Amino acid sequence: MVTTVLSVMLFLACATDAFAAPSSRPHIVFIIADDLYYVSPICSPTRSAIMTGRHPIHTGMQVGVIGGATPYGLPLNETIMAQHLEPLGYRRHIVGKWHLGFFSDAYLPTKRGFESHFGYYTGHEDYFDHEAQDGFWGLDIHRDGVTQWDLFGNFSTEMYTQEAENIVHNHNASEPLFLYLAHQAVHAGNGPDPLQVPQSYVDRFSGKINDVKRRIFAGMVSALDDSVGRVVAALKETGLLENTIIVFTTDNGGPTNNYDGNAACNWPLRGVKNTMWEGGVRGVGLINSPLLGSTSYISENFFHVTDWLPTLYRAAGGDPSTLKNLDGYDMFDMLRKNGSQVRTEVLHNIDPVNNFSAIRVGDYKLVTGHISNNDNSWYPPPELSSPPDAEKNNDVLKFSSELKVNKKTTDLSVSQESQGRSPGSGQAIVVNCGPKPLNASVNCVPEKSPCLFHIPSDPCEYNNLAGMYPDKVQELLKRIDQYRSTMVPPGNKPKDPKGDPFLHGGDWKPWM
After folding, report:
1. Torsion angle, CA of 284/286/291/297, rounded to 10 degrees?
2. For labelling, which of 40, 190, 254, 366 has a CA lying 20 to 30 Å from the CA of 262?
3. Helix intervals (H) in 242-394
4. C-alpha to C-alpha distance for 291 and 411, rounded to whole angstroms
5. Where is this region: Disordered (predicted)?
């Protein structure tokens, strides 16, 4: 099951004092992590929404993800972000994960507006040998459509960082740059040890994190942090930083509860990756640029993944009103000025195959159908070895993400802290869940009847209000039906045996 991404909370920071926008178009560096913290439940639909500004229900991407040997992808009649930016003069490069289809050459990123691609096509792979297991096995690392056979042993995060640095250093500053850096981190890799990172990164947390999997996962996140820092440093060294918009986000919620053998954590939010709970759809992101008129602030306004395309197109000097059939909104003024809310609702998804849907309108969220695969609980991190009883406590559970902004060095860091620890300097978001009722685990059974939650006062989805507000339930069900009337059929196709890499040299590549 799947949904589009919801970025309800958006960190914003400006690392230098704001000044008038330069005459040339701004460079855009869009960094997306994989399975980090809590955002959207699953991958391909989120990436399709980023690229098109359209809901997956309108592109046929609303069910699951694209498998390695499934002969479909983001439809070719959809215009993606790189194609929109090309007429504005942008040089366009993608590094890392694609996952929007590759069964035919026409679906490759270099056929869809990007001038170069170094990375992989499938949903996940090994961090060191770069083989992808997706029903079949095969090597999945390519440069501009050509498989790279000599990269065994190279750590993916390091490879993609070096590629991004090279693109920045070799870029002609007189032309605007669009760099889409889609990291593999921190998605699980292959095999019995899916958490993979050089030991030096794990050693950073020796004596600090006792749980082995969480220690390795922290190393993976640390490598990702270093990557972002190095890209920012490259932008600064080349003089591009002062005219650059940097976006950092992630494609879906954390795979906690041993999902994919991973060790992420969405605590104290409910649920995991691939669910409609807030742990699957509530997201955080960061935007950094001198072009922001207001600095170092946190916004809790609605921001949906479909909004990135019109927002960045506007920031690039384009007119979003000329972009047809968008579901996203131009949020640039809201972000630039710390303005008032633009959106009033977010459709999470309608999945006609797995039979579920979810929507938020104003303060109320409605979920109905099979919205999860029994990952309905609240999963504290192992370091909270003796937390209040996760099922029975009535304590107030808090979680904060602290955004620290160093205006002198332009370094940005985000740290996570649990209740009882000092937030230190900077600003912090605290998720206050309120008292947890004894029946929190059983008062909502969405596959039997719709559930209604008031998210501002109940972000952890403890209290099902459907019985108290039946009119509100009907209002939101009607809104879902209105969206459903515009939905196109899912584009999913069954696995094609001809896509097996064994049949064409041992690597994943187009086969039709």
Report:
1. 70
2. 366
3. 278-281, 308-315, 332-337
4. 17
5. 487-512
User: In the Cβ-directed half-sphere of 197, how many Cα atoms lie within 13 Å?
Assistant: 28
Over residues 248-290, the pLDDT tens digits come to 987 777 777 777 777 778 888 998 888 999 988 887 788 999 8
Q: What is the mean pLDDT of residues 93-122?
A: 97
Q: How many Å apart are CA 225 and CA 228, to the nearest integer?
A: 5
d(CA 62, CA 336): 31
Q: Dump pLDDT digits (tens) for 422-433.
A: 233 445 567 888
The reported pTM is 0.88
**For the chain, how many residues are written?**
512
Contacts of 156 (CB under 8 A, 6+ apart): 125, 127, 128, 130, 183, 184, 185
Looking at residue 429, its pLDDT comes to: 66
Question: pLDDT tens digits for 352-402?
Answer: 999 999 999 999 999 999 999 878 889 888 777 544 444 444 333 443 333
With beta carbons less than 8 A apart as the criterion, state whether 112 and 83 touch. yes
369 closest CA partner among 348, 393, 391, 340: 348
pLDDT digits (tens, 9 = 90+) for 37-74: 733 456 788 999 999 999 999 999 999 999 999 999 99
Q: Got the DSSP string for 64-96?
A: S---TT-S--S-TTSPPHHHHHGGGT-EEEEEE
Q: Which of 34, 57, 60 is nearest to 127 (CA)?
A: 34
> Could you tell me the maximum CA-CA distance found in the chain, to the nearest angstrom?
62
Residue type for 127, please?
Y
Which residues are known catalytic residues? 43, 99
Question: Does a cis peptide bond (omega within 30 degrees of 0) precede residue 268?
Answer: yes
